[in-house]
């Protein structure tokens, strides 16, 4: 057989060039899939932030609209076992809200609970992350003499930039930053006509904050007195 017809293999240089080209193609494919994966993860996180904000505003609207205060107290003040409150303290960046509502959902069978509860919303700094502030919710199904303490505390929104409450005073028609039914210098025995809730969460698209806002009307503006003698 002549040398011209003899089978010819790849040279070492050709093998190295082929491997280099294959490696470049593999890197490009990996980069494309990695970019898609990062984009998908980023969009999922942003969608989660929107979901948290919308769900929290729905919950707040249901709870605030069912707020109440009661004037039912025993003649003998030493026999008093519960106190109701509607209080908003103007704090930065998260206002504090302490209220009694008819929004409690009983989930345990045969539990000695009604639809009444104590609710609080306030800030809690994350000890593991500097500068990160979370919004927490406290609920107690048992009304007592300390309407701002006790119950179960859970984080309802992480990394909150702002939680602001404005209250519409029905007697003046003006929006105010604070409310306190426990003080004679505040708003005793009456509730605001509306509460404007502004929630701003960090972690939006391009690092921008996500803003949610809603106005919540309150059904019962005056203190409950239906069982008092007239």
Describe the structure.
The protein is of the alpha+beta class and 230 residues long. It has one domain. It contains 1 helix and 10 strands, in the order αββββββββββ. A hairpin with an 8-residue loop joins strand 9 (194-201) and strand 10. The longest helix has 54 residues, at 12-65. It is elongated.
Properties at a glance:
single chain, 230 residues, alpha+beta, six-stranded antiparallel β-sheet, four-stranded antiparallel β-sheet, 1 helix, 10 strands, 23% helix, elongated
Oligomer: single chain
Major sheet details: 6 strands, antiparallel
DSSP strand (E) fraction?
A: 25-35%
Strand order across the biggest sheet?
Answer: 5-4-3-2-1-8
Shape: elongated
Instruction: Give the H and E element order.
Output: HEEEEEEEEEE
Q: Give the class from helix and strand content and strand pairing.
A: alpha+beta
Radius of gyration: 30 Å
Helix content bin: 10-25%
Number of domains: 1
Ends apart, CA distance between termini: 125 Å
How many strand units? 10
Spans where pLDDT lies below 50 across 5 or more residues: none
Average pLDDT, rounded to a whole number, is: 88
The number of distinct helices, counting runs of at least 4 residues, comes to 1
Topology:
Blueprint (H helix, E strand, L loop, with lengths): L11 H54 L20 E4 L6 E6 L15 E9 L7 E8 L11 E6 L2 E9 L6 E2 L2 E2 L13 E8 L8 E8 L13
Antiparallel strand pairs: 1-2, 1-8, 2-3, 3-4, 4-5, 6-7, 6-9, 9-10
């Amino acid at each position: 057989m002549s040398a011209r017809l003899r089978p010819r293999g790849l040279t070492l240089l050709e093998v190295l060039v082929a491997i280099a080209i294959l490696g470049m193609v593999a890197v490009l494919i990996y980069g494309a899939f990695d970019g898609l994966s990062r984009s998908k993860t980023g969009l999922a996180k942003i969608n989660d932030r929107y979901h948290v904000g919308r769900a929290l505003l729905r919950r707040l609207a249901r709870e605030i609209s069912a707020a109440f205060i009661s004037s039912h107290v025993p003649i003998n003040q030493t026999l008093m076992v519960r106190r109701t409150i509607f209080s908003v303290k103007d704090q930065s960046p998260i206002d504090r809200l302490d209220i009694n509502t008819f929004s409690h959902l009983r989930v345990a069978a045969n539990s000695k609970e009604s639809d009444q509860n104590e609710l609080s919303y306030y800030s809690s700094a994350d000890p593991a992350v500097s500068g990160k502030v979370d919004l927490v919710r406290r609920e107690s199904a048992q009304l007592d003499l300390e309407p701002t303490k006790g119950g179960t505390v859970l984080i309802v929104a992480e990394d909150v930039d702002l939680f602001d409450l404005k209250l519409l005073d029905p007697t003046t028609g003006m929006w105010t930053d604070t409310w306190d039914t426990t003080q004679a210098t505040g708003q005793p025995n009456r509730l605001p006509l509306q509460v404007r809730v502004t929630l701003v969460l960090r972690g939006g698209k391009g690092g921008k904050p996500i803003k949610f806002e809603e106005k919540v009307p309150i059904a019962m503006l005056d203190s409950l007195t239906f069982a008092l003698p007239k």
